[in-house]
Amino acid sequence: MPVEGGSSSGSTSAARHPKQKRKAHSLSIRRTNSTEDRPPGILRGDMLEGQDSKLPHSLRNNLLELFGQIEREFENLYIENLELRREIESLNERLTGDGQAVDGGDPTKGALKAKASHSTSQLSQKLKTTYKASTSKIVSSFKATTGSRALCQLLKEYIGHRDGIWDLSVSRTQPVVLGTASADHSALLWSIETGKCLLRYAGHAGSVNSIKFHPTEQMALTASGDQTAHIWRYMVQLPAPQPPPDVSAPCDDDQDSSDREEGEVDGDGPCEVPTIRVATATLKSHQGVVIAADWLVGGRQVVTASWDRAANLYEVETSELVHALIGHDQELTHCCTHPTQRLVVTSSRDTTFRLWDFRDPSIHSVNVFQGHTDTVTSAVFTVGDNVVSGSDDRTVKVWDLKNMRSPITTIRTDSAVNRWVKAAVAL
Fold first, then answer.
1. What residues have CB less than 8 Å from 163, skipping those under 6 apart?
2. Which helix (H) or strand (E) covers residue 166, if one does?
3. What is the three-class DSSP state of 21?
4. What is the DSSP string of 339-399?
5. Disordered: where is this region (predicted)?
6. 325 and 305 in contact (C-beta within 8 Å)?
7. How many beta carbons lie within 10 A of that of residue 381, not counting itself?
8. Which of 20, 56, 79, 378 is 20 to 30 Å from 101 by CA-CA measure?
9. Helix-helix angle 109-134:57-97, to 10 degrees
10. In b/e form, how buried is each residue of 36-65, taking b as 16+ CB within 10 angstroms?
11. For the segment 191-236, what is each residue's pLDDT rounded down to a tens digit?
């Protein structure tokens, strides 16, 4: 701030002259110890009378009030430090009289530093609270309030896998079934309504990491840790809805029914689940675990993502490799295709995800999306021209395909985001 008063040096006065010229265009804040020290009837806004400012009167008053709060907080901090110093000096005198001494040349240094750090932290927190309160109209929070927690209820369990489930998908053709991919080297198809296992695919020699259904036919695509992706056909018939259990039936009948259902799921009884062991087509050009696979629009091509840092595009009819999508610096974690356009998005441990454009047969462009600070675990298309990405950096980001420089929305979570699954309804 400009310093009032004269100077004995002409050069010093000349040096201050430009500052005095700019004084009319700056906001001057006069220090006052408290509101009680001002003459009666003088408000904060009256202190700036006669000064040329473009700020509205109400905003200037708010600024004065805010700086007054800062001044009072520092005054309180200064008083607390003085009191603490007197207490420490008194304690040090007693310790010295008892033949003891506080470690260090300055006995008050460590305690004062800790106290000052604590007080400064409290001041910083108060300032942040004041700032957030004053800017609540432009700062939004994605954390749900206490009264808006989502209530979830278990509707159906699908029990049958012998190891962890990595992925699930719902068919897009009739009959509508649920597919699950598991580390037990199998994929299972389920009746959504009854929870009954309808079919098992056991053609992989490793963990089944993903499952996706053909958009128009009864075909499934699975990716596996055996470095391959399989395409296989299925035919299932949904069971009739089960009537409510008869509570008056004997217990032996209930036990037999339970044993029979378990046998159907596990394939251990006489009524074992139908099993497919041979794939219609095997896609095997990767040199590492195939972590995900998906159908391109139309269902005539598929894309696979692997830990060998590449994604491959295949022809379904011939199982031939069409393109190797290379560019990621580390292992791929997921891949997803656009529901209506020939677009593919791949995510990776290199903290990026890439958009591959195959709409023009002669040009295959790629765009790199940067913004995460840890592994991008998945990226999926939503309705419109948006992509949603999840990461181990505990954030979810929404991107516009037309502007990949920065996300349009960032949502912070309490833990890493393992996988994004798009629901049937739009986001």
1. 182, 183, 184, 207
2. strand 165-170
3. helix
4. SSSSEEEEEETTSEEEEEEEEETTEEEEEEEE--SS-EEEEEE-SSSEEEEEETTSEEEEE
5. 1-54, 242-271
6. no
7. 21
8. 79
9. 160
10. eeeeeeeebeebbeeeeeeeeeeebbeebe
11. 999 999 999 999 999 999 999 999 999 999 999 999 999 999 999 9
Q: C-alpha distances in angstroms, 26 versus 2, 53, 249, 303?
A: 10, 7, 90, 62
Beta-bridge mates of residue 191: 177
Cα(302)–Cα(300) distance, integer angstroms: 7
Q: Which two tokens stand for residue 423?
A: 């629901």
The residue whose two tokens read 């990026």 is 352
Per-residue pLDDT tens over the stretch 15-63: 444 444 444 444 444 444 444 444 444 444 455 444 566 778 887 888 8
Q: Where are the beta strands (DSSP E) in 43-156?
A: none
Half-sphere exposure of 423 (CA within 13 A, CB side): 3
User: What Cα–Cα distance (Å) separates residue 313 from each residue in 59, 116, 323, 329?
Assistant: 60, 62, 5, 19
Find the helix or strand (DSSP H, E) in which 211 lies: strand 208-213
How many angstroms separate the CA atoms of 332 and 345, rounded?
Answer: 11
pTM beyond cutoff 0.70: no
Euclidean distance between CA atoms 51 and 27, whole angstroms? 8
